[in-house]
Write a structure and sequence with these properties.
single chain; about 400 residues; Aspartate Aminotransferase, domain 2; Aspartate Aminotransferase, domain 1; four-stranded mixed β-sheet; transaminase activity; pyridoxal phosphate; transferase; aminotransferase
Amino acid sequence: MDANHLIPVIGFDDVVLTRGEGSAVFGQDGRRLVDLTSGQFCTVLGNGNAEVQDEIARKTASLVNTSTALISDEVLAAAERLHRISGEMRASSIILSTGAEVIEFCLRDAKFIKGKPGVICFENGYHGLTLGAQSVTMGGGYAVPRVSPVYPIPAPDRDWTSEQLDASLASLELLMQTSGDIAAMLIEPIVSVGGMVFPPASWLVAARALCDEYGILLVLDECQTGFGRTGDWFAYQKFGIVPDMVALAKAIGLGYPVAVAMFRDTVIAQAGRLPAHYSSHQNDPFGAAVVNTAIDYIERHDVLANVKKMGTIFLEALQEAAASSPHLVNPRGTGLMLGIDLSIPGIADYRPIYSTLVGRLLERGVIIQGTSGGSVLRFLPDYLISEDDIRESLRKVAEVVDETAASLQVG
């Protein structure tokens, strides 16, 4: 593989893809690879979905882009659909291109509305690599220079005791009481890059109440959790809260560069005015057509119910993998967003092991991704994945993990 003419921002796996079909992609050698990551968590209705592709092509045959001051019927229809599925949020929306872009949009507007610069975030949260988004990613440790002030807090885990959760909320309230410059709290309802951490609903409900009490906007990064991933349209609906702003990307674009910022009706009413925004790809007819096609397909085929069903099957298969392998522990997930930890005695740095796992699984026809330095495997497959692909792929994962651990002569 010759990648000499690509800017080397990341290492590439030794496979060149030529096409996709459903939950699978195919290499130049014709090998079928089951993709347990749905691209970069984006191709949620599969590759080459003829019904989806035909509808997008029909909608965009004559109009794909307009000036920022002109609105198409597709954009109006998408905004109405998003308003409807947002439920109690009763959201207004803007269609943009990437997750980092909508995070920047939400941060800028939150600071403008509140007239304050501060942002609370999770210490291990991920929100993108543009400067503002990176400043609240992993506590801002990699942003140079960081857009301050940023207030990182530990992300609560559903395994925490009630005492730990109470202490976390008390610490959060003290921060809100003593820091008079906080505009927003920006968090993921499920912390993906930070280790597949699932904050309990009770903590999120309490955090929402604290934001209300201290006049702080609650901004949810649902770029991974949103648009059906958890079996509900949005994770906030599953957890029983109503945010002020939501950032959406990945699934909402079906693999195309489409992202959306949603603002709660009360935010729009109270803001009075918002900063002007101009982008070459803002409320594009093309992006709106993708959103409309996605919502229509998901509702017509009852895809959310399928996500819940396949999510249950996937979690059961993960639990079976953990039962069969001493090196896979703590299977967890909701809908089709799941994780499991590697556990190999004597290993402190999982990066080399993870690299070996990825290569061996590619050879056996499975695509995976890890987080937390390779110590956590995360699974965000497409919403239409079959039970056979789930079970066979996870059988291979367990097999390769055990083989790799044995080859290290550890455990």
